[in-house]
Specification:
CATH topology: TIM Barrel
CATH class: Alpha Beta
CATH superfamily: NADP-dependent oxidoreductase domain
CATH architecture: Alpha-Beta Barrel
Number of helices: 12
Strand content: 5-15%
Helix content: 25-40%
Order of helices and strands: EEEHEHEHEHEHEHEHHHHEHH
Radius of gyration: 20 Å
Number of strands: 10
Structural class: alpha/beta
Shape: globular
Length: about 325
């Protein structure tokens, strides 16, 4: 399997071109299976793990970070083998905590960033977060305050790189310009929804990432399973939610063409969707969220696929996107 290690945008750190997402850990995947997935990922060369303080849908928020922390605590060099990314912005409500307005709301105040960082470090059983990502933009909080908080955490050795997630192109530009005023590195990465059926980031987010040297980390690279052979699975009798069925039917003409193309290529639809992302030089690593080791290993076949010009053009025909970058996509 062709796992490669790439720079995170213009920055010096090397991360695997596949990022292990952990949102399912403790929810759809037991702790025992989560441990096996992480061990296997490291064996395969994946050194980039992504989580968030809010993950823990199977129990309480923060549980997923605790699973990673217990995995690290086993030793064997596990922590030093991983570039660890987590996030801050959302409420993190824990049974042991009293209600508190800063923790219980979405924000990026200096108070919340410091407090949530300490909580994540404790749950992850580590002394540092390698990539601390703002899970969303907070346009009500001054950037001077937000960057001061990250600067202090960096000076304390608790945060190495800072990233964004779900930022608009102009938010990326503003954040980087404000960081530059303080003599800071600024944003190292942007984590956005990006897949064949949702290409809106091509308008302004990708150009901003290119200009400021951010690595793009696509989340939901398979569109919630839509691009993973949804039609074939449905025809085989696999049960699906009403919401997923509505989405499949709404996109059926595109999916019919897409799955026919994948069949012609002799490649699984999920692998083709990931390979399409990996061909983009702005993309550092799509995030995958395997529930089992088998899903992990099958996903990695995407790293061995090279899509030729004709295939890329056909994919553009099926999933045309916004028409390029702004403003040429809609003006001149």
């Amino acid at each position: 399997m062709a796992i490669e290690h790439r720079r995170l945008g213009k920055h010096g750190v090397l991360v695997s071109n596949i990022c292990l997402g952990t949102m399912n850990f403790g929810w759809h995947t037991t702790q025992e299976e989560s441990f096996r997935i992480m061990d296997r990922a490291v064996e395969l060369g994946i050194n980039f793990f992504d989580t968030a303080d809010v993950y823990g849908w199977g129990g309480e928020q923060g549980d997923t970070e605790e699973i990673l922390g217990r995995w690290f605590a086993q030793g064997g060099g596990r922590r030093d083998a991983v570039v660890l990314a987590t996030k801050v912005f959302n409420p993190v409500k824990r049974k042991a905590n009293l209600a508190e307005p800063n923790t219980d709301r979405r924000a990026l105040s200096a108070y919340k960033i410091r407090k949530h960082c300490e909580g994540s470090l404790k749950r992850l059983q580590t002394d540092r977060i390698d990539l601390y990502q703002m899970h969303h933009v907070d346009r009500d909080c001054p950037w001077s305050e937000t960057w001061q908080a990250f600067e202090q955490l960096g000076n304390q050795g608790k945060v190495v790189y800072v990233g964004s997630s779900n930022f608009a192109g102009w938010d990326i530009a503003t954040a980087c310009q404000e960081a530059s005023k303080r003599g800071l590195t600024g944003l190292s990465s942007e984590q956005s929804i990006y897949h064949l059926n949702n290409r809106m980031v091509e308008l302004e987010v990708i150009p901003a990432c290119r200009y400021y040297g951010l690595g793009l980390i696509p989340w939901s690279p398979l569109g919630g399973g839509l691009l993973g052979g949804a039609l074939k699975k449905l025809e085989s009798g696999r049960r699906t939610s009403e919401e997923s069925l509505e989405e499949i039917n709404a996109n059926r003409p595109k999916l019919e063409q897409y799955e026919a193309l994948c069949k012609q290529l002799g490649k699984p639809p999920a692998a083709v969707a990931l390979a399409w992302l990996l061909h983009n030089p702005i993309v550092t690593a799509p995030i995958i969220g395997p529930r089992t080791i088998e899903q992990l290993e099958s996903t990695l076949h995407a790293t061995e696929i090279t899509l030729d010009k004709a295939t890329l053009e056909k994919l553009d025909e099926i999933f045309p996107g916004p028409g390029g970058e702004a403003p040429e996509a809609y003006a001149w």
